[in-house]
Write a structure and sequence with these properties.
Chain lengths: ~325, ~300
């Protein structure tokens, strides 16, 4: 992929803010989130449940779950800057596509696979009936579904989870989307199928040069397929960097906790969980939201200006010393 | 990865209304029986209307209140008219009124209910309060008021039943939509670039219709009974036009001496009602299981 020629980001999210109505003040699910993905690159968004990953990615395609609202920031897709969900709606299905965690419920149970594909091809892409059928078969074949022609008449429940995710991917890439948002696409699948789906996504990416945004819990997935990573906590981006830097040499205490919590094949140590729970988003304490769970918290942590820190590579101003090779060494397992 | 089963490469199974109806006919004995009875009754009634066979208006004062026989299966009434012929003849009118007064609310209710459930917010509030307003007025009083304004005849019946029917379909559809809205395939359809109208019409509607259809058939029967009640009060169909309610009401005077004039048309209405329910259940089951073809 010639990076020099394609410096323009396929997807750029700038200072995104998503709010949900709360008891007293609004709950901010995404607080000043910014990132950019270039064509052919893969960005991972990691974090615990409820840290704003899904809200961010849903806002990026203009579909914030009700009653949440996209209240600030812009999303730029292929040079087109959108600041409202309505503007993004016009890009969905053509330049912007999305796949979901549970492929079983992403397909309408009363429609056949063929109907799903045909609808996209005819309505969104303007194929004729005849060419839609041929294209549907080609798409299914392309995403690795055996005997694709006979699958057209099947209903979603007649396929396995991996197959359904392949169909969903076929639908999403039917229009050769430039940006594919994947909301935990492999979480609901078993490990071998996960691997196949990830390989499929990588192959499609190589072929079309689309940008891929992958929301995941799984740092293993990040290491394997992502080029860059952002780590989110309580609606803030707490760390960003290349996948290798973040997974091998994490700087923010939260990221270090996540890496330490990941089981390693060759490590002597057992995975260590981060104590406590993600904070109650309804009424965040001032300062760094991770401070109450942080092993190396200082009194000054409560005075950290997250709005300023979360746009840097590491939102912890006290993390500089922890990046010394000595403290990183234990994280790096032999591979 | 599952190994592909040897499935014949037949392509799309859905091909038009005809194929769908043919498959729907395979849903079970209940559906087949119900549909057969309905077709027979409506067909016979339509044949009487079109060809002029039979004589539902013909009086025979020499043969009044005759007991059921081969010549007159349901006996004859006070003025010697054949009750069976009148009952069958009335099928078309009754089913037609029942279907129209349930069908129009079905359409309005589906659209309004789906929109209220999907969009929520102020639209939902306005629609639901309007429904409460209509439901707050007792049906008979509402229809009586409309009939009083329009004068006796079918127009009052039509307007009253339609107005009264809409809120039920709105509520039913809305509650279904509230659950459906959270289903991921609705979201997925949006991410694929479909407009909201298409998401609602193509992806949500088949799920909503299945529920409403079951209510629709019972509503048709219910409306026929209301029509009968209104005719009995002299506000609906005017004599001598045969109508089930009117026929039953006319026979009531002689119930003790000539029970058949009231009872047998009543049984006929029940059979038609059951046939409708069976047909509706069968269709809804099929719809829920398979969905609609694309067009």
């Amino acid at each position: 992929m010639s990076v020099e020629a394609e410096r323009v980001a396929a997807l750029a999210v700038d200072d995104l803010r998503v709010e949900f109505p709360g008891d007293a003040a609004p709950v901010v699910a995404a607080n000043g989130v910014s990132f950019a993905v270039e064509p052919g690159r893969t960005l991972g968004i990691v974090g615990e449940s409820g840290c704003g990953k899904s809200a961010t990615i849903r806002a990026a395609c203009g579909l914030v779950p009700s009653p949440g609202r996209h209240v600030g920031g812009t999303v730029t897709v292929e040079g087109r800057t959108c600041s409202t969900p309505d503007e993004l709606a016009e890009l969905r299905g053509r330049t912007l596509a999305m796949i979901f965690q549970d492929p079983g419920s992403s397909l309408n149970p009363v429609m056949t696979i063929g109907q799903h594909l045909r609808e996209v091809l005819e309505v969104v892409l303007g194929h004729s009936r005849r060419s839609a059928r041929a294209e549907a078969v080609a798409l299914l074949d392309h995403v690795g579904i055996p005997s694709p022609a006979s699958r057209l008449s099947h209903y979603p429940h007649e396929l396995s989870g991996g197959m359904r995710q392949r169909v969903m991917i076929a639908l999403a890439v039917a229009a050769r989307a430039r940006v594919l948002l994947a909301d935990e696409p492999t979480t609901a699948l078993d490990v071998t199928t996960q691997e196949q789906i990830l390989q499929l996504l990588k192959r499609l990416q190589r072929e079309t040069g689309m940008a891929l945004v992958l929301v995941t819990h799984d740092l293993g997935v990040v290491e394997e397929v992502c080029d860059d990573v952002i780590v989110m906590y309580a609606g803030y981006v707490v760390e960003r960097g290349t996948a290798d830097a973040v997974t091998l040499a994490p700087r923010h205490p939260y990221t270090r906790g996540l890496v330490a919590a990941m089981p390693r094949l060759f490590g002597r140590e057992l995975p260590r969980a981060i104590p406590g729970q993600p904070p109650d988003m309804d009424g965040l304490p001032p300062g760094c939201p991770f401070a109450p769970r942080c092993a190396s918290a200082l009194p000054d942590c409560l005075a950290v200006d997250m709005a300023r820190e979360s746009v840097t590579d590491c939102a912890c101003p006290f993390a500089a010393d922890s990046t010394s090779p000595a403290s990183r060494g234990e994280m790096i397992a032999p591979r | 990865m599952s190994v592909a089963a040897p499935v014949p490469a037949e392509g799309y199974r859905h091909r038009g209304v005809l194929a769908w109806t043919r498959r729907a006919a395979g849903t079970g004995v209940g559906f087949q029986l119900g549909a057969a009875i309905l077709c027979l009754a409506i067909g016979a009634s339509a044949a009487m209307h079109v060809t002029g066979l039979g004589n539902p208006y013909g009086q025979n004062l020499a043969n009044t209140l005759a007991a059921p026989s081969w010549a007159h299966p349901f006996g004859t009434d006070e003025v010697g008219r054949d009750v069976f012929q009148r009952t069958v003849y009335a099928t078309l009118l009754d089913v037609q009124i029942g279907a129209i007064t349930a069908g129009i609310p079905l359409c309005f209710g589906l659209v309004l209910g789906a929109a209220a459930g999907y969009f929520g917010r102020w639209f939902d509030a306005v629609v639901m309060r309007l429904c409460d307003l209509i439901l707050a007025v007792p049906l008979m009083v509402l229809v009586l008021a409309i009939v009083a304004a329009y004068g006796p005849g079918l127009s009052g019946v039509y307007v009253g039943l339609v107005v009264k029917g809409v809120p039920y379909y709105v509520r039913l559809t809305r509650s279904e939509m509230l659950g459906l809205r959270e289903r991921q395939f609705m979201l997925a359809a949006q991410t694929l670039g479909f407009r909201t109208r298409r998401v609602l019409a193509r992806h949500a509607l088949p799920h909503l219709v299945a529920t409403c259809l079951v209510f629709f058939v019972s509503d048709v029967v219910g409306n026929i009974l209301v029509l009968a009640a209104l005719s009995y009060l002299g506000l609906g169909v005017q004599p001598p036009t045969p109508e089930w309610g009117a026929i039953i009401a006319e026979g009531q005077v002689n119930l003790l001496t000539a029970w058949w004039v009231t009872t047998l048309p009543g049984v006929f209405v029940v059979v038609i009602g059951v046939a409708m329910s069976l047909t509706g259940e069968g269709l809804a089951g099929r719809l829920r299981l398979r969905g609609w073809g694309m067009r």
